[in-house]
Structures are given as structure tokens and as C-alpha cells.
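Trying the structure run again after the queue cleared.
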Amino acid sequence: MTGFVTADRGIGEFAVVDAVPEFVVVVFAAVTHLADPWFLFGLLALGYWFASDRVSAAPRRAGATAIAVVTCAYAVVALGKAWFAVPRPPGAMGPADVPVWLPGALSAWYEAQVLSDGFGFPSGHATGGAAAYGALALLYDRTWTQRRRLLVAAAVALAVAASRVVIEVHFLVDVLAGVLVGGTVVGGALWLAGDSRFRGWWGRRRHALDGGVAPTTALDPLPVFLLAAILSLLAAGVALAAGDTGEVVEAGIGIATGVGGALGWLLVDGDEPPVSARVAAPALLATGGLWVGAYAVSSSFLVTVSATTAAVAVVIALPALPALTVRE
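Done. C-alpha cells:
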């Protein structure tokens, strides 16, 4: 499939980027953090734990579904990168052209943003940003109007996509494909989760017959988590066949996140109240420590995947923890 998406897929976009002032490039290097996986999953986890019925009719279902949607989006990215296996732009390989006026600490940060390895199509940041902010706009449906939420989501997603081109770690086609994939995943995943807005004429009619009950009240993220695990498994198979070790690891993390999310959701009813800070604080430390420890200490693929599965399961099951403790 590399004939369909080639290594030389630029259309002259970097000639334009090279004319952009250094200060603007530095700003876009910061904007790209808005779709870093750690930032997105942290944001989604906090929304899942703490959102109240002032932002969604079913905040726990909405939050878990948003996490499942983004997990599914990253699974599609892993499959796409393993399948097409095309490199990033030459500028992403280095050396980095760091502005001389940046302080030392910021110089190291900037260099880390503008250098990137791995495959380039589609853009994971563009896909994840479109999926995450699109899902948030649709699922947290009691904040502003839907039109305003979607406009803000589109603005953030497009800013992130542009940032990947401005810092020259992706070609324009990579981010355009990413935004398209992210938006498509949102629609498909919400359909799978049972959102009546994506179930065609019958879904909209059923929504009307139910008296206009918010579509988030019927969401079930379980099949979306399972789909993410299946897609990640396919990505792992493709990467393994090609001998791409790094992509196998990325796919394994996707499998773990999908399976962990599914296991955690099996313990949740979906109508739990927001998580209290005294429960969330130690849980955040425990799950964060588990993730960091798995990646920093262990060189075992199995240990990394197992730790990720456990951490995600705890994140999703946390709203049910007080009830489960009382039950026991």
C-alpha cells in the first residue's frame, strides 16, 4: 500500500512554513500539546470522574464513551501507520533548528517537539484531536449550544492539525487524513455506542418518541472499547509481520487500553455521582505511577501491556469504587 501513500507526499507546504516567523512556530509547538495522548487521556479521565449533570444528562456514560472513542481513534491510527509504513518529513529527523533566543530549558522542550520518529501517515495528533474534541462537543451536551461546542472543537482540532505541519513533523496530507479519520471515528463509535443521533431516521424518531430524552442516557461504551482492542490487535499483527517493533508496542498499548476500558466498565452502572477528590487523588497517583513505572522500568512488552490494562481498568471503574466497597 505504500504506492497509495508515498514517502514523497508533500505539495510544497514546507516552503510556506519556512517563511513563518520563529515566534509563531514556537507557539504552534505549544499548541500541539493539546492533542498529546497523555494530555487527552488526562483531560478525558478528569471529565469522566468529575463531570456533573450540569454538563451532561449522563456524565459517566458520556465520559467513558469519550475515552472509548479516542481509544478507537488511536487504534485506527496504529493500524494505518503499520499498514502504510511511510516516513515522516525529513525535517522531523533533525537536527532541530532551535531559535537562539529561547532559554535553555525551553530549547530542550522545543527540540523534543520538532523531532519525531516513527511512521507519519495518518497523523496521530490530528486524529486524536479531532476525535477527542469532537466527542466532547457532542457528549457533554448541556454546555453552551451544540453549534458553539462544535465550532470550538473544530477550531482546536484544526489548530492542532496545523501545528503538526508548522513544526514539520507531518505533511499536510497526513493531518488532513487525520482530521477526516478522527471525525469518522466519532460518528461510527457513537453509532456503535447507541447514540440515537447517529442511528439514522429510526434513531431520530425513537429519540422523539422517548420525549426528547438526551441521547447520552443510553450510551454503552463497552462495544467501542472492544472494537478498539480488535483494531489494535489487527495493527499489532500487521506491524509484527513487517518487523516494526515500535508499532507493535503502540498497538499493544491500544489493546491494553481497549481491554482495560471494557473490564472497568463492566463494574460501572453508568449513573454514579462524580468521584470525590479524596478518592480521585490516590487513584491518580496509583494509575499514573503504574503507567510511568511500566514504561520507564520494564523492558517487557507483556508487563507494559498488563500494567496499562490494570491502570485503565481502575480509571474506568473508579466511580463505582465507593459502592463496591460498601457492598463488600
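The mean pLDDT is 91. Worth checking whether this holds up in the mutant runs.
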